[in-house]
Amino acid sequence: MSTCLDDGVTPLQEVFNQNPNLPPGITVGRLNNSDVFCLDNEHEKSGQVCYKDIPGVHRALSAFNLNNYESPNNDEKKEDVPLTVADIDKLVPGMWLKCLYDLNDASYYEAMFLTSNAVDQMNPNVGISIIGHNTNTIGIEFDRHELDEGEEAQKVVPISWCMPNGYEVYEADGHVDYIVEEENVKELFHRAFKELSNNQSLNLDKNEKVLFSYSQHETVAKDKDGYIKKSGRTTPIPVEMDTSQYKTIYSALTFSHPAVQQIDNKLKLYQLYKDDPLASNVFPKSYSSYVDALLDADETGEDIFYIKTAGGTRGEDIYIKSRDELAKDYQERKEEGEYDLVSGEGDTIDEGDVIIQRAVSDLYTVDGDGPISGRRFDIRYYLVITDGKHGGREEEDRSTSS
Known about the structure:
It contains eight helices and 21 strands. By secondary structure, the protein is α+β, with helices and mostly antiparallel strands. It is extended and about 75 Å long. The protein starts with 25 loop residues before the first strand and ends with a strand. The longest helix is centred in the middle third of the chain and has 14 residues, at 186-199. The chain has helices at 57-62, 118-121, 186-199, 258-264, 266-273, 277-282, 290-296, 323-336; strands at residues 26-31, 34-40, 48-52, 96-100, 108-115, 127-128, 137-142, 154-158, 162-164, 170-171, 176-180, 210-214, 217-222, 228-235, 248-252, 286-287, 304-309, 318-322, 354-358, 386-387, 397-401. The strands form five sheets. The chain has a six-stranded mixed β-sheet, with no helix packed on it.
């Protein structure tokens, strides 16, 4: 097996200071006073490729420990057991369950428990599913996104059709717990809180315990006729959760919160930093109007611009335009009355608003001659930011974090 180092072919075994905690196929060390890391690809004929003199790589990979990046799952998954009439008193309005929709479908769907007194508290027009003389029923409201068009969201069903949906509380250490619901970001939070625990940076009292919540749970309300329903209001804690053990509860700000929008919305973020010379050196050249972008374009017409929806994410709704295409696009939109972005400013940022950014022409790419050489890369930083006080208070302290 060989490498692609500048000083010639060198066996992997000669790379010193290999870190045994790295995943199989990756090694890091020093060779001829150069920082080196190697990727072993069994599927490539070349077998292995190595890179050297990339700042910080040796330090980062030498300290890597896979054990620090395991999800701190609390318990083994419990077997789902249908509810019985003995469980009715344990149900709390707003509690999420998994329920059958009807007997023709064996699948369980998420549904919110509304009431055990459907006759008095629910709209009499809702669907009722009763088997024989079964009167042990509960009123529920299914998640609309899981239903087909035309299916009723609210139903009265036998309690045996449902089972607890539950929630998970993860433990970072003996003092810090956290809740996160979104599956696609759980691993990021597990890593962050593992590091938070290792660094012991919260300075908590010996007997103090805190909870961080990064989820939102819908609650119940009454409609204009006084009938109970699922509301649009949310709470950061599951309604059935006992929080008495926590001195402080930190709840994440929602994306719709004005403080978060100042960062999440690209146009609002630009309006914050545009007059700061230091921030302007870090962010790509941005414009809040077509006019500003066209006036600042290079005379050669070789500039490339990205038009992005201000509140967009995941690389969606991004259009790449040359200067001429940008001018044509602006003229067409102006004539259609779809956009009037001469000023580009405003107190309200609507979903359709855009930000225009000039493409970076001198991207920093991966060096070397391996399979990823010349590729661009992203560096992302994840921070836990809190605003609140610890200890010294008798009442529950609900602070905020983002």
